[in-house]
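WARN retry 2 of 3 for item q-0093 after timeout on previous attempt; input resubmitted unchanged.
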Amino acid sequence: MSLPLGPSGRTRRLGPLPYGPAGAEGAERPGGSGLRTLCEAWTGSWRDNGTTGTTERRPCLHQTLWLDHGTDPVNSSYGYILMPGASRRAVAARAADRTGLEILDNSDICQSVAVRSLGLTAANLWRAAAVAAPTVTSPTSVVVRRCGRTATLHISEPMRAGQPLELVWGRSVGRVLRAAPSVEVLDTGPHLRLRVTPGAADVVHGCEVATG
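OK item q-0093 returned
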């Protein structure tokens, strides 16, 4: 992960940072070497990234963060949170907080998190999956926000293939309060089953339900 920091002509190389929640730079890696960083000066233009944009070349600092997990790790994983604009104190407080955000899944099938205090669950499902929550028939991004006895599902299809997909949310649903025209309700009751026709545009498709 590389972060642009600002213009400079110098390169700084730092060793491993301590892991654990004690410091703002702390990164947990049980039994590992901790978070490593590299700060270096890059020079480039927007045109380097494609056929459009300015050709003006500008210098900037890039901060690269990585975990040295060795060669061909087996059953290894890690997690991180991006906090743009956060102060050192805010990052340290977040690192010490074990109640705010919970990682539910972190696999090559699904990555999902929950913030219980906000009633919020967010998931990226990288392929059709019958073992994750929710289950889907194609790659899908889902954000669920629960408030009292209602829940709102926000669904998108990042691949933009435009083909219909089905989603099953394994929660009891009494009735659908409203749904986007692209969302067809196939079943309610012990679980909610939807068919979404996303089209090829990058659009979020919503559905609000009364939970059981």
